[in-house]
Amino acid sequence: RDLYFSQVTWSTYASMLRILKKYSLRFHKTFESSELIPGHTLTFSSSPGRIFSGDDFYLISSGLATMETTIGNGNPDLYQYITPQTNLEYVRNIVANRLATTAKEWTDYFAEHNSGTYNNQWMVVDYKKFKPGQPLPDGLLYVLEQLPHYINVTDATHVLRTQSYWPSYNVPASEFIFNMSGSPEQVKKFGDWFTYDKTPRALIFKRDHGKVLDMDSMIALMRYNDYKNDPLSRCNCTPPYSAENAISARSDLNPPDGKYPFAALGHRGHGSTDMKLTNSSLFTKLEFTAVGGPTWGQVPPFRWSTSGLKDKHDGQPDLWQFTPFTHHWKSGEYEDFSSGLAE
């Protein structure tokens, strides 16, 4: 058995200039201590000029892997609790990534000084607790959801035990955060698309997760988009489906003159812009497999010159038709980490 940890970024196509980064900043715990901080080395997906991921997707020398999907806030009553004068989200995730040694500890660090900005569902996996072929121990997976003024933290390891995967679809999983975020009003107005368990991505994942047998089949699931043929991609639209309704969205393929009940289902320069995936073997070297650009294969590759989009995209290739690769970082940095992870 293995433990896969994967994320697909959904963003604007103008943001597709990316860099995979490794930071090795061997800070000590205190000025007088010779002991290194747990998260002295990180690998992550990022963009030019950023000192954090932004996707977010991190593999950390502490044995933790962290990622998030954005859940947003549709409750105007919570705006009063936004406090930009405190530590913004990216600062808190940097601190938690550097200092935490367990998934629970990561959520404790991150929850301090909640700014209410960039509200996400964070998933924190402790790979130190994973032993192939053995039951998953409590504390292996923690899930944190943030809104202005509110943080909800759950040990979600039991979900991995019972259904073999934890899914995240830009919708709050906890009932409390779901209700506080204004999501019930969206469900009343637009239907199941705004639910956690009946949104198209949830139904596709529930149907297809059993097909995952190895890294290649996991990549295929994360890059999946067969919107014209998959009944779960259908909607009350003209035409009667949307390329948004897939694990890897391709909203550029929706016709500009189509009719859709809300903008997210329509034509725009937005969709899946990458895929990242690690497993228990790659993680010991803080390595992951990645592919850049919108998904292709079941759908045509994205090409700026024929897309009709007017977004600025300086420095990008015209045709985005790349295949997955695994970058091997310079060796020699991880001896202490790898031996500790195997204990």
TrEMBL record:
GO MF entries: phospholipase activity
* GO cellular component terms, A-Z: extracellular region
* UniProt GO BP: phospholipid catabolic process
InterPro entries linked to this entry:
PLipase_B-like
Report the leader peptide range: none
For this UniProt record, the keywords arranged alphabetically read as follows: Glycoprotein, Hydrolase, Lipid degradation, Lipid metabolism, Signal
* Gene3D superfamilies for this protein: 3.60.60.30
E.C. numbers? 3.1.1.-
Q: Which family does the similarity line name?
A: Belongs to the phospholipase B-like family.
Its biological purpose: Putative phospholipase.
Protein known as: Phospholipase B-like
